[in-house]
Amino acid sequence: MICYIVNTAEYCHQTSGELAENVAKIISSQFSDKVDMSDVQDEFSAVITKALMTLVHGVETKFDAEMVAMTRVPWSTLESVGDQSEYVNGISSILSSTVPALGSLLSPTYFQYFLDKLAASLGPRFYLNIYKCKHISETGAQQMLLDTQAVKTVLLDIPALGKQTTVAASYSKFVTREMSKAEALLKVILSPVDSVASTYRALLPEGTPLEFQRILELKGLKKADQQAILEDFNKHSPSIKHPTITPTAAPPVPTATASVPMAPVPLPTQAVAASPSMSTALTGALANREDVLARAAALGRGAATTGFKRFLALTEAAKDRKDGPFRKLFNA
């Protein structure tokens, strides 16, 4: 039903624009420039994005039970590494029962949008879920690493499930990058105690002392042993950065830290934030902001599909950038 709403709203968006053009042709020329359906088209664009985000949230909700099941696995007492865990099978089953219908009903443009937002949510959520587990033994970490690689494979197979093979290559890169964070975390847990600090700094350079302490707890170290390692860690990490974490659910209104824009076209001005550091950095950020706004404005008010594709072209280019205000659309 939600896919039908998306397709109907797209049709109405395009038809209302064509209606305005046809009316402008048959009325007096002095009034033709006053015929404007842009506000109506914007409403239909908002319906499309709201519907797509509802699809993403719906699938996210189905993962709740599997995320809880992951934390309840006795990771500290596993005796050997076997096949992928049952919660991974659950995630695969959910996607197998959901994605084919979406792939058959949504256009490639909107299916791509759905995939990007799902990956932007599930990857960080899986990473944070590792911290919710209790003690993880070496065998448990090896099993969880196997599970992580299995989840990554499941996500990479979604386009095939939806029978849409024209998905942008950036989707695979995005999934790999997000899931590699969970793999890095597990490799830190697997590292020997005497090298855990250096491994953490090397694999998770944006980690915080608080997260590092949680990793020591996951390894099962006693408080006294943790304190000595933490003191050495803090001594060698005076300026460690705080990480940015994508929320599991997008807020209804885009802000400077929103992970998902709530209007496909044009890009809302509040989604762009200037850097508050130094005056020179501020000038550069403002220049970037004006550049993004200018390109977003160039999307125009044409057909929904065309405008949405051009919007995605900008967002795909922004994903691989490590800085810039537009990058904040993909990081919280």
Judged by helices, strands and strand pairing, the structural class is: mainly alpha
- Biggest β-sheet strands, sense, barrel: none
Radius of gyration: 23 Å
Helix content: 55-70%
N-to-C SSE string, H for helix and E for strand: HHHHHHHHHHHHHH
How many beta-strand runs?
0
Number of helices: 14
| Unreliable spans | 239-315, 317-332
Q: How far is the first residue's CA from the last residue's CA? A: 30 Å
Mean pLDDT: 77
Global shape: elongated
Q: What percentage of the residues does DSSP assign to strands (E)?
A: under 5%
Describe the structure.
This protein is mostly helical and 332 residues long. The protein has a domain at 1-190. The protein has helices at 2-26, 29-32, 38-62, 64-71, 86-105, 108-131, 138-156, 158-161, 169-190, 196-203, 209-218, 223-236, 279-297, 304-319. It starts with a helix and ends in a 13-residue tail after the last helix. The chain is elongated.
